[in-house]
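To the structural biology subgroup,

Please find below the input and predicted structure for Ovarian cancer G-protein coupled receptor 1, which we are adding to the shared reference set this quarter. The sequence is reproduced verbatim from the submission form. If anyone notices a discrepancy with their own records, reply to this email rather than editing the shared folder directly, so we keep one authoritative version.
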Amino acid sequence: MIGGGFSGPKMGNLTADNSSSNCTIDHTIHQTLAPVFYITVLVVGFPANCLSLYFGYLQIKARNELGVYLCNLTVADLFYICSLPFWVQYVLQHDHWVHSDLSCQVCGILLYENIYISVAFLCCISIDRYLAVAHPFRFHQFRTLKAAVGISVAIWVKELLTSIFFLMHQEVMVDKDLHRVCFEHYPIQAWQRRINYYRFLVGFLFPICLLLLSYQGILRAVRRSHGTQKSRKDQIQRLVLSTVVIFLACFLPYHVLLLVRSLWEASCDFAKSIFNAYHFSLLLTSLNCVADPVLYCFVSETTHRDLARLCGACLAFLTCSRASRAREAYPLDAPEASEKSGAQAEDPELLAKLHLAALQAPGAPGVGGSPMGGLA
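Predicted structure (tokenized):
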């Protein structure tokens, strides 16, 4: 990965730049640690984000603009998760990229863009909740589905245009062991420093300031509100607090070390001294794909009910499957089976009722959920 501005998994003996000089760094520990991180994110994050995409759709169907931001956040995570099998293969083969140069650039961009698209949409979620709580009537035009879609398109276009910058540079090089390394530059190059400063200031520092100001404003507005139920206040505070925690835990260490490298990394010795800490912080950014689905738990009161209904339906399906296998193993026309359970003849009807009850839980609403922004 780009040793300065952005970096994917980096584990091998690397060339320092496009010149003949070499900067050899031992990546052995990361060839063990990185696969664990990436496989965990792949196994846990893919189903979690697929489920989150479904709940985001329910929010959009309920005319909740927050669902637009959450769906875009999930799509960015899924794009990155789809690139993880390539990175796992890369690190397990001791930093040898066996695919095309273009695929290296695309996979690297997916990692890089996931960081900054996630940052942008986490910021949008906090600002949207701030406007909903502190100014529910003054800025209503910014809290519509149309406005959310427009803002989302602008974020994607901005980041995709930035990614073109990386397509203009060669990112696959051959190290001294004849391995094709992907997005590896040590020490970082001059062009990387410039893009790193931009990413730190515009992609991270500016959004985090907006996010923290929004969170402070939300807390102040919630405390002053006397017409809002305590449960709804707690719900809003948990949503924004979880957004801040995800933001800081996943992205702060990486950007601090990114700035340190951009300011002071000028030699191979410095690159070696900071390598382990920098790459561990990079791995933390991947956990964002697992943490983001947690936000859906705090979107609306109906999210928990929708999840309970879905779990109930799955449980009913599994129960039906087990009962069917049991009947195949012990046919009802067998003497023992007919003697042991005369009531089993009622099972199909009973299971049908159980399935129906799971899909129509008492008090469960239709699809979707009420927006959290409509506070008194």
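Summary notes: The longest helix spans residues 190-224. The chain is about 70% helix and 5% strand.

Regards,
Lab coordination
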